[in-house]
Amino acid sequence: MGVDAGWKAFDDAVVRSTIVGAFANAKAGVDANIWIHQGWAMRKTGSVQDRLNSAVDTVISRATKLVNAAVFPVLVFEGARTTHKKETHAKRAGAIGEKYERCYLPRILNEVRERGFVYVVAPNESDHQLKFMESSGLVDFVLTEDTDAVVLGCANVVHKVSWGVSTLKCNVFNRNNVRMPVDMNAVNTVVELMCVHGDAAVRLWAVASGCDYRDGKVPGLGPQTAFDAIVACIRSAGTVNIRSFVKYLVLKKVVAASDEDTQICKLEEGMAGFERAVVYDIRTKERRWLNDNTVLSANHSENEE
Prior knowledge:
Elements: E1 14-18, H1 19-22, E2 27-31, H2 32-42, H3 48-68, E3 72-77, H4 86-93, H5 96-103, H6 105-114, E4 118-121, H7 126-135, E5 141-143, H8 148-152, E6 156-159, E7 169-174, H9 190-197, H10 199-209, H11 223-237, H12 242-251, H13 260-275, E8 278-281, E9 286-289, E10 295-298
Parallel strand pairs: 2-3, 2-5, 3-4, 5-6
Antiparallel strand pairs: 1-7, 6-7, 8-9, 9-10
Helix pairs in contact: 2-3, 3-6, 9-10, 10-11, 10-13, 11-12, 12-13
């Protein structure tokens, strides 16, 4: 899941690498729920138990391959559902995979514990937990297929791992590969938008064009048209925020004037999904907000092993 544009939007900052060697002695924050879904999907036929076994095998075998590559994995599992991704959850709700993920997670955690792997059950979304762990120095990179990690601000995101290849070939998004454009007034890619105008502009692009954290995108906008509109808005107003962006869309008749307030509210809700979240600090065993130091509650050892 993630932004509708997929990884292609961030190609300018992605290089091909290998986990073996390149990430030796590093700690990886792993989005384990994606492995669960992939393992479940690998078993096209068979009983629920067969698919569960496939999911367990996928999580354990991939974590073991990381250990064999001298990488220390911290497996992150999703916790309670959030309203910010209600549309995404609704799409999954009727699928066996979603029922399985929620009901059989204890079985997977037991298997993980028995093999001695470190794990964290996030208070809510794994995306935010992974961002917190990386920015806090608890892990060196994030391993996920979800582009939301980039939009949230993760610096090093490993994805598209070739698990059948001995060197574990992979793609790596690295913020060190983000380069300032020669002409600051000519922003042509999402990566350049990130570099010149920051993560907030990229989050607005993601929410407006379609992502997990919005209950439907802005009508009439896709990844390219949303990007073009944001760049044009910046050129016109000198900056971009939700209100100026929607007013620009109204001016260009993309959004009806009567719908202006509704779209502003929806975009604000989507942006809040990225920027306001509860995470778990494994050092202090406290739950806190992602973007500030406010402690919500302490002694939550059930979130980890």
